[in-house]
Design brief:
about 675 residues; alpha/beta; nine-stranded mixed sheet; six-stranded mixed sheet; 19 helices; 32 strands; about 30% helix; lyase; phosphoenolpyruvate carboxykinase (ATP); PEPCK_ATP_CS
Length: about 675
């Protein structure tokens, strides 16, 4: 009975449901059918879709950038014909150019290249590759494969590549890309070499004091082949085609081929970014970098002293990087190239900051680390032309770079608001430490290195001047952090003194407190950037003096270090006082001041500077122990003289009179 009851109940339920469905009026949704109340019953909220699979849906998410280059024989770039996808002429030329750059010196053709990400499902065009007539024995596996070229990717695309494929890449809380440079967290100057051939042997600065370590052409080619073979063995390489020098008449076309998205984004920020139209007509680069990153050099190769080698061949206009992932090698390598090429055009290349007042007055700032160059050249009342590398031509000054490379250690919003605010999407943060959850950066943490850095486009600085060019400088400011406490806070220099102190490139570093040692240590770097210059320092100094004389510029020596005693007994000159001094230089008021000359160094110091205590303008007046002052002054003078002995044998001009004038401008005792 129970079973029959259950069955009857189920049957009654099925019958009732069917009857209920049949009793409901049908809703007509067919196109063209009439409905008594179409505004209520017509279901048209979801239009038909244009995809049938999830891959097709994803393909609709991104649209191609509109090409502007016409095809050969008519038509529109990017249109697919009967023979498959068509490569725009500019893309085809780019691939052919990159293939030529990556060509082995022992093979007849370059590698087979495809434009685009190897993981992309979309069909991509490749560079036409002419088969060689080499016998089968000469064909290598690398010659059979295609290498994907990721050409001038946007920051967003490079973020995706870095985060997906490069361990140690993260997005910070402000949107910057944090990454690691591997075992090398700074430049390797002892592993940097320049090819010495007949031309460079005569033109470059070699020997004692020079940063140029020689190598021969054959060794360079061995290292080049090693780097090129490594890059060609990869599934993909990053290629940046960009410019150096904002002066359009003297800019340099550079190509950077690298293995990491980090390196590509770094150079995207640091070099000048071409417009789409400029990129289409980029053509053959003037200089090429092959950055093999972590792939080491062969230690058994001649001249190699470690697994790292940074090699420059000025004749071939090429640079090879092996065994280091530190991105700064590319930036400073190109700076060295500019130090060689620009003087040939009678253009002075300078390791300096540069800003411009609202009236068009330009000032150059030279200074080593710790002198305040970045702080003093970044002035909210003036336009920033650049913070590090510049050219001075017949038409004025121009920034070499398209970005800034700022130190981040102990960075604080209150001290450096412009740098702090520039660390956002698109910025590369090197070797910083951040919270694993919030991704907030701790700029005081030195766990990885003290040399933490941020690389960002110069447009990220609110008062930057775009384009980064300006008229001839009126003031040339040499900054020194004198921890001995004997140099005046401000001195006006004549041309010979400007050349002497420019060649010297002096500052003083304070030693650590280990075992109670607190003595300052003098540091000299010729032209305030000895590690990057190619020619003898006196050549750059002579060009500087010539341009200053022609344009009526004034030289100044500004001490941002100690007063009233050396480090440990005196006190650091207040930044507010130094800013008052710089303001007086910019305004021109110091040109009308009265001056007196100091002993030993023969520096002219003003009797008065508005807003600066007069008792610190003359260093001896601020010292309680006058004898200690004299002893310290003589000590520093001897250090200057000993350092300058490196340059005394180099004569400037036919008679060498200018050399004698420079020597006479130094300390006299």
């Amino acid at each position: 009975m129970a079973g029959n009851g259950n069955e009857n109940t189920g049957g009654d339920f099925s019958f009732s449901a069917a009857a209920a469905r049949d009793a409901l009026p049908r809703i007509t949704t067919e196109k063209g059918a009439k409905s008594p109340t179409p505004s209520v019953c017509q279901d048209d909220t979801a239009p038909p879709v244009n995809f049938q699979t999830i891959d097709e849906l994803h393909s609709l998410q991104k649209k191609r950038s509109a090409p502007t280059t016409p095809l050969r024989g008519g038509g529109v770039a990017g249109v697919t014909g009967t023979s498959g996808p068509t490569t725009p002429v500019s893309a085809e030329n780019m691939l052919q150019s990159v293939s030529a750059s990556l060509a082995s010196l022992t093979r007849e053709t370059g590698p087979k290249l495809i434009r685009g990400d190897p993981t992309s499902l979309a069909k991509v065009a490749h560079v036409p590759h002419t088969p060689t007539s080499l016998p089968a024995a000469d064909v290598s596996d690398s010659g059979l494969k295609f290498t994907h070229v990721l050409h001038n990717l946007s920051p967003a695309e490079l973020y995706e590549q870095a985060i997906k494929y490069e361990k140690g890449s993260f997005v910070t809380s402000t949107g910057a890309l944090a990454t690691l440079s591997g075992a090398k967290t700074g430049r390797s100057p002892k592993d940097k070499r320049v090819v010495k051939d007949e031309t460079t042997a005569a033109e470059l600065w070699w020997g004692k004091g020079s940063p140029n370590i020689e190598m021969d052409e054959q060794t360079f080619l061995v290292n080049r082949e090693r780097a090129v073979d490594y890059l060609n063995s990869l599934d993909k390489v990053f290629v940046n085609d960009q410019y150096l020098n904002w002066d359009p008449e003297n800019r340099l076309k550079v190509r950077i081929v690298s293995a990491r998205a980090y390196h590509s984004l770094f150079m995207h920020n640091m070099c000048i970014r071409p417009t789409p139209e400029e990129l289409e007509n980029f053509g053959t680069p003037d200089f090429t970098i092959y950055n093999a990153g972590k792939f080491p050099c062969n230690r058994f190769t001649h001249y190699m002293t470690s697994s790292t080698s940074v090699d420059i061949n000025l004749g071939r206009r090429e640079m090879v990087i092996l065994g280091t992932q530190y991105a700064g090698e590319m930036k400073k390598g190109l700076f060295g190239v500019m130090h060689y090429l620009m003087p040939k055009r009678k253009i002075l290349s300078l390791h300096s900051g540069c800003n411009m007042g609202k009236s068009g007055d330009v000032a150059l700032f030279f200074g080593l680390s710790g002198t305040g160059k970045t702080t003093l050249s970044t002035d909210h009342n003036r336009y920033l032309i650049g913070d590090d590398e510049h050219c001075w031509s017949e038409t004025g000054v121009s920034n070499i770079e398209g970005g800034c490379y700022a130190k981040c250690i102990d960075l604080a919003r209150e001290k450096e608001p412009d740098i702090w605010n520039a660390i956002k999407f698109g910025t590369v943060l090197e070797n910083v430490v951040f919270d694993e959850h919030t991704r907030e950066v701790d700029y005081s943490d030195k766990s990885v290195t003290e040399n933490t850095r941020a690389a960002y486009p110069i447009e990220y600085i609110p008062n930057s001047k775009i384009p980064c060019v300006g008229p001839h400088p009126k003031n040339v400011i040499l900054l020194a952090c004198d921890a001995f406490g004997v140099l005046p806070p401000i001195s006006k220099l004549n041309l010979a003194q400007t050349m002497y102190h420019f060649i010297s490139g002096y500052t003083a570093l304070v030693a650590g407190t280990e075992e109670g040692v607190k003595e300052p240590r003098a540091t000299f770097s010729a032209c305030f950037g000895a590690a990057f210059i190619m020619l003898h320092p006196t050549k750059y100094a002579a060009m500087l003096a010539e341009k200053m004389q022609a344009q009526g510029a004034t030289g100044w020596l500004v001490n941002t270090g100690w007063s009233g005693g050396s480090y440990g007994s005196g006190s650091r000159i207040k930044l507010a006082y130094t800013r008052k001094i710089i303001d007086a230089i910019h305004s021109g008021s110091l040109l009308n001041a009265t001056y007196r000359k100091t002993d030993i160094f023969g520096l002219e110091i003003p009797n008065e500077v508005e807003g600066v205590p007069s008792d610190i303008l003359e260093p001896i007046n601020a010292w309680a122990d006058k004898d200690a002052y004299q002893d310290t002054l003589l000590k520093l003078a001897r250090l200057f003289r000993n350092n300058f002995e490196t340059f005394t044998n180099h004569k400037i001009g036919d008679d060498g009179n200018l050399t004698e004038e420079i020597l006479a401008a130094g300390p006299n005792f």
